[in-house]
Amino acid sequence: MANIRLTALTLALGIAAAGVACSDDAADKLGGRNTGASSGSSGGSSGANGDGGPGTNPGGPPAEELLFRAVEPDLKAKCGNACHDLATYKPTPPAFLAGPDAYKSIKAKPGAIVADYYQSSLLQKGAHAGPAVGSDPTFEAKVIEWLKMESAVIQSQKKPSTDAVALVAGPNDIDMTKACVGGLTGVHLKFDASLVGGILSLNNIKVVAAAGTDVHVYKPKFIKVLAKPNANNQTEIPDGAETFSNTDQTVPGGAETVLAPGSAFITSAGWTPFDFATDKVRIEVDKLEPGKVTVIEAAKVCKNVANFTANVLPSLRGGGGITPNCANCHGNGLAGLSLNGADQAVVCNQILQKLNEADLTKSLMVTKVTVGPHNGGLVNNAATWSAVFTANKAVFF
Predict the structure, then answer these.
(1) Are 241 and 224 in contact (CB under 8 A)?
(2) Strand 248-251 with 214-225, pairing
(3) Blockwise average pLDDT, block size 10, the chain, 397 residues
(4) Is residue 300 part of a domain?
(5) DSSP-assigned letters across all residues of 135-161
(6) Domain count of the chain?
(7) Exposure on the CB side of residue 209, measured as CA atoms within 13 A
(8) Residues 145, 13 share a domain
(9) Apex CA 217: angle with CA 212 and CA 220, to 5°?
């Protein structure tokens, strides 16, 4: 690993700079895709990873920062100045190279430094007021070398995890407290475990959230923990297929909710055969935190379509001495109204969307043709028109 880092640094130091670029994007709209968070601010002598991982550089800045410092002059020349440094260009671009420390600034920019370096907004951004990074292959190579190292550091950092636990054939209940952040407690993961030809099978996977707090679960990963090192001197083997990599859901507090995908076979190299007697499992998560379940209310519908047809619709079609006839203009979809439609429930619901339940006299259906402006003119009797709705409120609500 040390030789790899040295090679990467040597390559970065040996590549020349060229060109100038800028952004026509407003702040916080750097990339076409924002797919992750940055990994923190500038590391000092201890580095971003103090356990001998990819970013370790004892006695100096971490290796990923050194690679950034090597490409920093090019970034400043191509992307800085009035654009992503001073941010005086209009519209104001994100100042991700702002002083006094551009490294701290770019680390704080969401989407710039991510685990999957090719998804970095620096690489994803196409041509704008300035050219894309990829328009200069030499410059792009330097940026990629730096982002690769940042990616390796992110992936080497330990994530919140449960203790290693022994599984049993049948129901299992794992306390997820140690993997939680934000003061979250009382979360459990339940599933039925079995062996199918030596492959660990999980079924009925559910998250149990404590009452009172919704729980956000993002990318849980199963890690096989061996009783003793294997032939490759491994004591832990991650689920290489990352079976739950697409899991991103919020479950309601006090509920037991199926965790997507609900069932799984873990067939990664080193996982088969799985032995309930000797092997254990721990579960890492990218995020296990307090969340908020979004409740999407169903669209309101009319309460009494029959009464609407008898008491309201005739007036909309020019009955009761009211002029002009609304259906002449709004009979077939204009302004979201199809007053000549045969399905009265649809027509009633269209009208409902234009009514103010708190005060029907201030509804768009009333004011548009009694106060205006309205291209079709105003009704001949404002009081009668308003009463069509106020007298029939129970039709709608």
Answers:
(1) no
(2) antiparallel
(3) 39 36 45 37 36 62 89 86 79 85 88 82 81 86 90 81 96 95 92 95 94 92 93 89 87 91 88 95 93 74 92 89 88 85 90 89 90 88 90 90
(4) no
(5) GSHHHHHHHHHHHHHHHHHHHHSPPPB
(6) 3
(7) 24
(8) yes
(9) 140
Residue 238's identity, in one-letter code, is P
Whether residues 169 and 264 share a domain: the answer is: yes
- Is 382 within the bounds of a domain? yes
Domain extent at residue 374: 305-396
For 106, list phi and psi in degrees, rounded to 5: -75, -30
Note the pLDDT of residue 57: 63
* pLDDT for the residue numbered 26: 47
CA-nearest of 283, 282, 284, 285 to 165 is 282
C-alpha 279/C-alpha 141 separation (Å) is 43
Locus of tokens 């654009």: 83
Residue 303 near residue 395 (C-beta atoms within 8 A): yes
Residue 133 φ/ψ, nearest 5 degrees: -55, -40
Residue 280 is predicted with a pLDDT of 96
Residue with tokens 């040390």: 2
- What is the rounded CA–CA span in Å between residue 320 and residue 387? 12
Q: Is the dihedral of CA 305, 310, 312, 318 positive or negative?
A: positive
C-alpha–C-alpha distance, residues 275 and 143, integer Å: 45
179 C-beta neighbours (distance < 10 Å), count: 24
